[in-house]
Each structure stands twice: as structure tokens, then as C-alpha cells.
Design goal:
The structure holds two protein chains of two kinds. Chain A is mainly beta. Helices cover 0% and strands 54% of the residues of chain A. Classes of the chains: A mainly beta, B mainly beta.
């Protein structure tokens, strides 16, 4: 079993839809949870960063962490064609100085 | 504020050769880490440097080695290249928790 599991998709939605992206993990030591967006031929760009369980909202993006279920989610409201990208979940045991463990990434396509 | 820059952007090498990839950290970031991203996969941690010392390593063989310089820039060296080393190599610099990734070097081994 991989440490972090993420459905690779692809996921296709119409503009304005609500998108839900999810990851599960097996290592209960993970404390820090991140979502990155990666456009084609670019490096990952940090979207959301959360510590421990709970919700965090930033504009159209909401990140949820449920440590009891070892499950994290990213919701995108009012999706736009510019949101078309690969979304990677990542997590780490420590805040700094420790490796990020990534999921495979989910490819999202938003059509206008 | 400059971001993380990597060079070259693309590279083609022959199996058995050696390669050096370079990374300039974001201003003020004292930690640099390297990741390998195969096609269709998430990035995998190779190693990390803090103040010129390696302080973390993933499950990669010793032919993957690195350096960090006093200005916090970094190099990734790969010896005896194998076909499976073909991937996007990402550098990330960080200060405390926030990591910034470069656009990567696309390495193709033929």
C-alpha cells in the first residue's frame, strides 16, 4: 500500500461546477497537509497548507483534513477553465526539514 | 523577489553518462530539496540540503548526489544514467514551512 493514494482521474467538469479532489493516506504521523497545482511543463505551485484536522478556506478553494479517517479533500467552487491543471496532494511529518510525500496527482479539465 | 530557477530546462543524455542539474534558490531560502517526477506520477523526494549539509534522503541510490553552495544554490548529480532516470527533476527552496518549486529540468535518457 502506498503512503498516499490519489485518484489520477482525469476529471472533466463544466465551468462553474464544484470540484472535489481527495487523497487518503496510511501514515498517522503526517501532521502537515498541502495541495499543489501543477500546470503542464511547470513546477508545482502551493495552493493550500493546513496543519492537523479541520477546514481552511482561501477564496474559491477549501481544504479539509480528517485525521481520524486519514482523508484530505480540496474543494474548488465556481471552477474556471484556468483551473485546468494537475492537482497534487502532499503531506509531511514535520513542518520544515522533512520530505514531502506526494500523491500521483489528479488531472482536472474545466470546459467553458 | 526572484523565484527558484533551474537549468537547463531540457536535457538529453545517453545511458551510462553523467549529468549535473542546477538550481538557484529563492532569495533568503536556506534549504533546498530535490524531487524526481516521472511521467504521470507525483514528485518523489531525492534529498535535502540545509546550510550545505545533506539532512535528509529518500530511497535513491548513491549515484544520485548533490551539493549546496554558500549562496544556497544547489546541484544534483546523477552518475551512470539509466533509462528509468528519465523524468522531470524539481528543485524546491524553503525557509521554514513554505516551499517554492522551480519549473524543473526535463531529463531524457536514451
Amino acid at each position: 500500500q502506498k503512503e498516499v493514494e490519489q485518484d489520477p482521474g482525469p476529471l472533466s467538469v463544466p465551468e462553474g461546477a464544484i470540484v472535489s479532489l481527495n487523497c487518503t493516506y496510511s501514515n498517522s504521523a503526517f501532521q502537515y497537509f498541502m495541495w499543489y497545482r501543477q500546470y503542464s511543463r511547470k513546477g508545482p505551485e502551493l495552493l493550500m497548507y493546513t496543519y492537523s484536522s479541520g477546514n481552511k478556506e482561501d477564496g474559491r478553494f477549501t481544504a479539509q483534513v480528517d485525521k481520524s479517517s486519514k482523508y484530505i479533500s480540496l474543494f474548488i467552487r465556481d471552477s474556471q477553465p484556468s483551473d485546468s491543471a494537475t492537482y497534487l496532494c502532499a503531506m509531511s511529518v514535520g513542518q520544515a526539514g522533512t520530505a514531502l510525500i506526494f500523491g500521483k496527482g489528479t488531472t482536472l479539465s474545466v470546459s467553458s | 523577489e526572484t523565484g527558484v530557477t533551474q537549468s537547463p530546462t531540457h536535457l538529453i543524455k545517453t545511458r551510462g553518462q553523467q549529468v549535473t542539474l542546477r538550481c538557484s534558490s529563492q532569495s533568503g531560502h536556506n534549504t533546498v530539496s530535490w524531487y524526481q517526477q516521472a511521467l504521470g506520477q507525483g514528485p518523489q523526494f531525492i534529498f535535502q540540503y540545509y546550510r550545505e549539509e545533506e539532512n535528509g534522503r529518500g530511497n535513491f541510490p548513491p549515484r544520485f548526489s548533490g551539493l549546496q553552495f554558500p549562496n544556497y544554490s544547489s546541484e544534483l548529480n546523477v552518475n551512470a544514467l539509466e533509462l528509468d532516470d528519465s523524468a522531470l527533476y524539481l528543485c524546491a527552496s524553503s525557509l521554514e514551512a513554505r516551499r517554492t518549486f522551480g519549473s524543473g529540468t526535463r531529463l531524457t535518457v536514451v
